[in-house]
Amino acid sequence: MVYTKVVNDLIASGANCYLFGGAVRDRILEQVPTDYDFLVGNINEDLFDKVLSKHGIIYRGNIIPELRKLNTGNGMVDFKYIGDKDVATYLKTNTDFTSNSLAYNMATDELLDFHGGRIDIANKVLRLTSRRNDLTSYPDFAIVPIRVARLSASLGFSIEPETFTFLKKHAHEMFEVTSKERRAVDLHKLFSRDNSRVALDILMKLEIFDRLFNEYDVKEL
Prior knowledge:
This protein is of the alpha+beta class. Helix content is 42%, strand content 17%. It contains eleven helices and nine strands. The chain has a seven-stranded mixed β-sheet, with helices on both faces. Strands 8-9 form a two-stranded parallel sheet. Helix 6 runs parallel beside helix 9 (180-192). It is globular, with a radius of gyration of 18 Å.
């Protein structure tokens, strides 16, 4: 795996390292993950960066300060530094759906499910991990109206009614806190998956289809 040596070095340095998000969901569904994301805690931040730098080039963004994108030369892997934060709380406030809130302890092989993700995966349901007042408080979360359409279509999951109602009410807030370029990244992912027509239908039901696609020339996507 592209991440094996990095993760082993982090654990050897005393870090807690958890695979989380879509990669865990895909494993439960017996699918091959397309992305790998890790949470890393219980380690000094400088040492964390030093360990990562031994394995490739680190890219850091401004939107999510705890995120490091590591180019290992064989692929990209995302690592989020959580310091001494509680894993359950972090997953609740920083993941979109319960099916993406599962974490796998890389040292102990323990699957952590604090928010009912396994049940929702078994029932093929997309449900928000936590109820929020709006989409603007966490910038990366704001892209979730596009993401819910993509995941529902590609995974064949239904959207839990309260989740759909909330997203329909707040979907236009996405345009306030995300850039056109950021939205294009997720739209490109949407078109690269099967059943993109189903995803487009969901965007119409969320009443953001016209506003989204009036922004772009087809060639941009």
